[in-house]
Amino acid sequence: MPRHFLLILAIITIFSAAVRLFRINEPARYYFDEVYHVVTARAFAQNNPAAYDPFAPPPEEGTAYDWLHPPLAKLIQASSIKVFGDKPLAWRLPSAIFGTALILATAILATVMFGKKAGLIAGLILAFENLTLVMSRITMNDIFIAFFSVCAFIFAAMYSKKQNLIWIVLTSVFLGLAIASKWTGVYALIIVFAFLFFVMLKNQKSLLPLSFLIIIPFFTYLASYGQFWLQDHKISQFIDLHKQIWWYQNRSDLAHPYGTTAVFCTPKGLDGPKSWCPWILDIKGVYFSFETYGPKNGYIYALGNPLIFWAGLIAISYLIGKLISERNGKLVLILMGYFIFWVPWIFSPRLLFLYHYLPSLPFLTIALGVLLKDIWETKFKFFTILAILIFALSFFYFYPITSGYPINPQLLEKFMWFSTWR
Predict the structure, then answer these.
(1) What are the C-alpha distances in Å from 378 to residues 308, 334, 388, 419?
(2) Record's GO cellular component, any one (predicted)?
(3) CA angle, residues 189, 231, 36, in degrees to nearest 5
(4) Separation CA 37–CA 26 (nearest Å)
């Protein structure tokens, strides 16, 4: 398999891009949180300061500016609008590009840490993961934080192999980009900081470069508000904006039929499952869109590939067992990368959705890559091939309802394995 590493990786990347770009302009309207992200990206493209104002009136009926997340992802989307025009393809193209790049980055991270076999398997499995597909075809910011976080982990892993300062700098830059896309990028910073701290101790290196992991992300975050500063906003307005962001992110009075709530914090007025368990088991999806195409309907559900989700939990358990026997720091990094992006949500007061689990999925698929690589190297090699084929079949089975491809309405029930998916 590794003899044709670059060729296989290129095929995986091309496939990933193709399934993301196919009919990405449908529906030809806003859907789900595009009512916030698209209008904000458009405002950024027009250099409209209202996009940074928490009290600005809605630009259109049924929409609102998304000031409650840092601006980087929306600035990238605004660049696409400037280049390709204000149309659905331009709105969603950056997500497709970064979603494809996420698969490539995941394969690279697994390769750096566990070898080419694990890298190819992990990348291929993530290419067959449906929630990653969905979030690569919508104008939101989640795919960006996932990509930037994985890149930060790549450079941290590179530093663990060769203690060159450039890897610390690159790690810091990508951590800053992750945080500038969504505040949960701070979780990546925490894990990477701890990992590099122990790497430096083990190699008897100065701990001073760790300061880069604080300083560079801080200034990268400030720089992401470059348009805000160029519009002559004041520091006091920057502080007030972040007070509003903090207030909103800690609200506990929001409800949504497709949301879940934390174990220790239960929002008012919500009848959904009171835990994060539906995430890791893939039993609480999010209904994104419905569109009519003559006698057929197009549905978009934010659902994971259930077989990957479930097998991934076995792989995570396998890595934990492997860690106990081997005491391998690389396993710690992957396991912490998986857990850090969803365990903190257990304590969150806000309404939660399945796509908040997205940044954990690259690490879940890397765990699967390690497990299936180890199986490949035994006499049960066929099991690895069979598992990947099953994941692929599951991906294509759910592709219509995770991409909006038109189907006969009566077929929908065949996809609804759980009542909570409706």
Answers:
(1) 22, 23, 16, 40
(2) plasma membrane
(3) 60
(4) 17
Helices (H), 357-420: 361-376, 381-403, 412-415
Q: Can you name the residues that pair with 161 across neighbouring β-strands?
A: none
Identify the three-state secondary structure at position 301: strand
* DSSP 8-state assignment for residue 71: S
The 3-class secondary structure across 304-360, one letter per residue, is CCHHHHHHHHHHHHHHHHHHHHHCCHHHHHHHHHHHHCCHHHHHCCCCECHHHHHHH
Q: In the Cβ-directed half-sphere of 181, how many Cα atoms lie within 13 Å?
A: 26
Q: Reduced to 3 states, what is the DSSP secondary structure of residue 296?
A: strand
- Domain span at residue 321? 2-421
pLDDT class of 262 with cuts at 50, 70, 90: very low
- Supply φ then ψ for residue 56, to 5 degrees: -70, 145
d(CA 212, CA 85): 38
How far is Cα 38 from Cα 75, in angstroms, rounded to an integer?
11
Which has the closest alpha carbon to 283: 357, 360, 387?
A: 357
* pLDDT per residue as tens digits for the range 203-213: 889 999 999 99
Amino acid at 305: N
Number of domains in the chain: 1
Integer Cα distance of 353 and 379 in angstroms? 41
